[in-house]
């Protein structure tokens, strides 16, 4: 908050600059570059510093140059940005007031519970003040310490990262940013930091359990890592010491399976399974002579003779309808629609057995 107030104080223009601005509004031809040589860079610097506090309205409308248009736009922007910053600070001032402390409870357990509630209320007020100043998306990140048994391994991972090639780290980040929205936000934040501050974001991969023979699972490899679970964490701006208090924000997490060198694959597709139905006709043909094999002419003659016999045995629907055995006709029938009596008369299938 103190840094924000200092930035705000630097943003407010002094009296000579205000006078030059009013003269510029009255007559654009009165612009004198000498009056703005120092104020314009100072306003740009103060506006950039304010934008880094979460004020999107403070991004300088003019990035360079010394002319009347730049002077007018930057002065107007500085005045409006200062008003917004002051209003946000005033809305957050009430949250910095001390939390009323009730009388101490006589029971130690109740007193401890009361103390925890006071701490929670104070933390909630500070969180509310931060959101009032920097926007509703701003989050206060609490500090924590690693467990004592974790510190040596994490310290070793920080001292000798599993991957140090910046191009490989950037390729990993850019590939994930295409499919994971949170990683895309991280990549965009890094680009914005590079443009606004001229600083590259330092990414340090930590992989545990730490095995010197294992490759980094975030990149490509020729020899796969050993079997077992592997945790790979990409640290942004490594901590100075693994045992010190750490403030961290979880950007994204996901689980993947290390692919095997060989896989048995298959192809599946959807199709309509055919209905299981009995054959409509069965022709059982026996050879006329028991010679141990079929002769082609004998088989052709059997098929021709079967069709001849089928034609002789064919029964018309009219003959079935007028016959005395019509009601006893077998149920294995097929539809027939050209008859004069019934539109769905059924005809029994024929099974021909040809023997010689």
Give the SSE map:
Elements: H1 2-11, H2 15-26, H3 33-36, H4 39-51, H5 68-93, H6 108-134, E1 143-144, H7 151-159, H8 166-177, H9 181-197, E2 203-208, E3 231-236, E4 246-247, E5 284-285, H10 296-313, H11 317-322, E6 333-336, E7 345-348, E8 353-354
Helix pairs in contact: 1-4, 2-5, 4-5, 5-6, 8-9
Can you characterise this structure?
This protein has helices at about 1-10, 15-25, 35, 40-50, 70-95, 110-135, 150-160, 165-175, 180-195, 295-315, 315-320; strands spanning about 145, 205-210, 230-235, 245, 285, 335, 345-350, 355. With about 350 residues, it is mainly α. The chain folds into three domains: about 1-95, no CATH class; about 150-245, no CATH class; about 285-355, no CATH class. The strands form four sheets. Strands 1-4 form a two-stranded antiparallel ribbon. Strands 2-3 form a two-stranded antiparallel ribbon. Helix 4 crosses helix 5 and helix 5 (about 70-95) packs antiparallel against helix 6 (about 110-135). The radius of gyration is 44 Å and the shape is elongated.
> What string gives the helices and strands in order?
HHHHHHEHHHEEEEHHEEE
Oligomer: single chain
Q: Tell me about the largest β-sheet.
A: 2 strands, antiparallel
Q: In percent, how much strand structure appears in the residues?
A: 5-15%
Low-confidence stretches: 335-356
Count of separate DSSP helical elements = 11
Mean pLDDT: 79
Termini, distance in Å? 111 Å
Number of E-type strands? 8
Gyration radius, in Å: 44 Å
Biggest sheet, spatial arrangement of strands:
1-4
- Structural class, by secondary structure, is mainly alpha
Total number of domains? 3
Silhouette? elongated
């Amino acid at each position: 908050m103190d840094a924000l107030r200092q930035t705000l104080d630097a943003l407010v223009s002094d009296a000579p600059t205000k006078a030059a601005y009013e003269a510029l509004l009255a007559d654009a031809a009165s612009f004198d570059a000498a009056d703005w040589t120092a104020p314009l860079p100072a306003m740009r610097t103060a506006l950039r510093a304010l934008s880094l506090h979460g004020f999107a309205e403070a991004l300088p409308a003019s990035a360079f140059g010394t002319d009347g248009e730049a002077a007018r736009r930057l002065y107007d922007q500085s005045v409006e940005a200062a008003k917004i910053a002051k209003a946000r600070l005033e809305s957050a001032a009430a949250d910095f007031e001390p939390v009323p402390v009730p009388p101490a409870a006589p029971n130690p357990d109740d007193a401890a519970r009361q103390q925890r509630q006071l701490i929670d209320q104070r933390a909630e007020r500070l969180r509310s003040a931060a959101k009032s100043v920097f926007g509703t998306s701003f989050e206060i990140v609490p500090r924590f310490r690693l467990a004592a048994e974790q510190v040596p391994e994490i310290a070793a991972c920080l001292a000798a990262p599993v991957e140090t090639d910046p191009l490989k780290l950037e390729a990993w980040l850019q590939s994930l940013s295409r499919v994971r929205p949170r990683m895309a936000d991280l990549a965009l934040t890094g680009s914005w930091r590079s443009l606004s501050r001229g600083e590259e974001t330092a990414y340090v991969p930590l992989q545990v359990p730490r095995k010197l023979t294992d490759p980094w699972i975030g990149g490509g490899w020729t020899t796969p890592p050993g079997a077992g679970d592997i945790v790979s964490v990409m640290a942004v701006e490594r901590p100075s010491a693994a045992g010190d208090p750490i403030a961290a924000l979880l950007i994204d997490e996901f689980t993947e399976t290390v692919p095997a060198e060989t896989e048995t694959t298959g192809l599946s597709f959807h199709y309509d399974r055919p209905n299981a139905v009995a054959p409509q006709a069965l022709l059982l043909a026996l050879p006329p002579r028991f010679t141990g094999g079929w002769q082609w002419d004998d088989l052709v003659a059997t098929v021709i003779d079967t069709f001849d016999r089928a034609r002789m045995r064919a029964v018309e629907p009219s003959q079935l309808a007028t016959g005395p055995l019509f009601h006893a006709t077998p149920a294995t029938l097929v539809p027939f629609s050209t008859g004069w009596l019934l539109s769905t008369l059924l005809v029994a299938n024929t099974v021909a057995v040809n023997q010689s």
